[in-house]
């Protein structure tokens, strides 16, 4: 049996041509692996058959939607993960899961290499290969577009000469990646950061400028995990699908950002993540109600570092695992309900409640029944400001 390469297969032009291109360049048989993370579009069985028709010796499809939601989206939600405070890691979350299946499939089949369709310019090449290196350091990673000079014009000629069953439609001016957590759009006229996005860019969200009556939804969390909408229980995947529809109807989750890529360049990106933005908004507010002050403050710094690690392709790193342990510990009391109003591109918290709440009405109220002893405040302020007072005396004496 010839040696094998396992290729992360999307069904598009580059990875379809990549099957034969890899075989020609390496002499190895290619196994196509398509992982369903809720990207929608074509039927996965059609994609599986296309890989075989393009020369794959075997074509494997994995339905990983629930795994993606349970093991990747939920940790990101617990971490309120937003890279550069805005991007909910749409593509970055799916890459370690796909890499995991690349590595395990390669080992199961006795392959010594894996491959992906990334260029040498983006983040995903790093995410795939760093994840594979962490999980299967014995495997070699190959990128046909980057390593074997597979350009788009060469791919089109290659496909035509071999009559490969690839539907050639008018080339989109955009590069698009999507999964159930969101959708990423780049290139084309968006490469000029002065150009405003147009409505044709969007798929998951409706125009937020169109006047619509607001919708209210109540999101229930159990230890940081969203478990119900308006009292109806859902799995994490069902929660995301439902909130994509509910929040997307009002244009929630549109993001236009100039992003700092791992490879050192800035890139203009447009994202839409209606469920991501709505659920993170609700989750963060429930934490404000249930987490002790210093724990909550410190977690905000951890969230930024967690997001950067995942963005940079270090999902399987030791530091990421350690931060996961901290974040999971903070979620012990993050249970309760958050009411969101969805309208005009915004998800606004209008109510929150929890049996684990640290909000004490009798301490917070300014009306009769206040149990806060205001006489203690003066002494507290004197002690709190004492270091500043002493330092100020020194500074004034030196002038």
Name of the level-1 CATH class of the largest domain: Alpha Beta
Mean pLDDT over the residues: 94
How many domain modules? 3
Terminal CA distance: 84 Å
β content, as a range? 15-25%
Tell me the Rg in angstroms. Answer: 25 Å
Name given to the CATH architecture of the largest domain: 3-Layer(aba) Sandwich
Parts with pLDDT < 50 across at least 5 consecutive residues: none
Using the alpha-carbon principal axes, give the shape.
elongated
Q: Number of helical segments?
A: 14
List how many beta strands DSSP finds.
14
Which sequence of SSEs, written as H and E, runs from N to C?
Answer: EHEHEHHEHEHHEEEEEHEEHHHEEHHH
CATH superfamily of the largest domain: HUPs
What's the SSE blueprint?
Blueprint lengths: L3 E5 L4 H14 L2 E8 L7 H10 L4 E6 L1 H14 L11 H20 L3 E3 L8 H12 L4 E3 L1 H4 L4 H10 L13 E5 L2 E5 L28 E8 L2 E5 L2 E2 L2 H13 L5 E7 L5 E7 L1 H17 L2 H19 L6 H13 L5 E8 L2 E8 L7 H4 L12 H8 L1 H12 L2
Helix pairs in contact: 1-7, 4-5, 8-9, 10-11
């Amino acid at each position: 049996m010839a040696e094998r390469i396992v290729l992360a297969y999307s069904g598009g032009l580059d990875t379809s041509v990549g099957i034969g291109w890899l075989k020609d360049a390496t002499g190895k048989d290619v196994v196509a692996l398509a992982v369903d993370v809720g990207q929608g579009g074509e039927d996965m069985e059609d994609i599986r058959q296309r890989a075989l028709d393009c020369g794959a010796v075997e074509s494997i499809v994995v339905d990983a939607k629930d795994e993606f939601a349970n093991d990747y989206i939920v940790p990101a939600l617990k971490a309120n993960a937003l890279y550069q405070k805005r991007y909910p890691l749409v593509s970055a979350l799916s890459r370690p899961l796909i890499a995991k299946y690349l590595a395990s499939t390669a080992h199961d089949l006795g392959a010594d290499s894996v491959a992906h369709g990334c260029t040498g310019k983006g983040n995903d090449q790093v995410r795939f290969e760093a994840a594979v290196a962490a999980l299967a350091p014995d495997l070699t990673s190959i990128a046909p577009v980057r390593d074997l000079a597979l350009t788009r014009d060469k791919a089109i000629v290659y496909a035509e000469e071999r009559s490969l069953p690839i539907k050639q439609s008018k080339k989109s001016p955009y590069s698009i990646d999507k999964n159930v957590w969101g959708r990423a759009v780049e290139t084309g006229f968006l490469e000029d950061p002065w150009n405003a996005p147009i409505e044709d860019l969007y798929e998951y969200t409706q125009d937020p400028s169109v006047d619509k009556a607001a919708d209210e939804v109540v999101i229930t969390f159990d230890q940081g995990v969203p478990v119900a909408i308006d009292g109806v229980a859902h799995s994490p995947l069902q929660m995301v699908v439902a909130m994509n529809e509910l929040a997307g109807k009002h244009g929630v989750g549109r993001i236009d950002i100039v992003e700092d890529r791992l490879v050192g360049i800035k890139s203009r990106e447009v994202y839409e993540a209606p469920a991501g933005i709505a659920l993170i908004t609700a989750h963060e507010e429930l934490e404000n109600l249930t987490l002790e002050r210093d724990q909550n403050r410190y977690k905000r710094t951890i969230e930024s570092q967690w997001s950067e690690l995942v963005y940079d392709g270090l999902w399987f790193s030791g530091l990421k695992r350690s931060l996961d342990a901290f974040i999971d510990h903070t979620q012990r009391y993050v249970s309760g309900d958050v009411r969101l109003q969805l309208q005009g591109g915004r998800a606004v918290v209008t109510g929150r409640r929890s049996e684990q709440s640290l909000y004490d009405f009798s301490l917070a109220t300014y009306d009769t029944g206040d149990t806060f002893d205001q006489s203690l405040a003066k002494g507290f302020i004197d002690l709190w400001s004492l270091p500043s007072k002493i330092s100020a005396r020194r500074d004034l004496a030196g002038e």
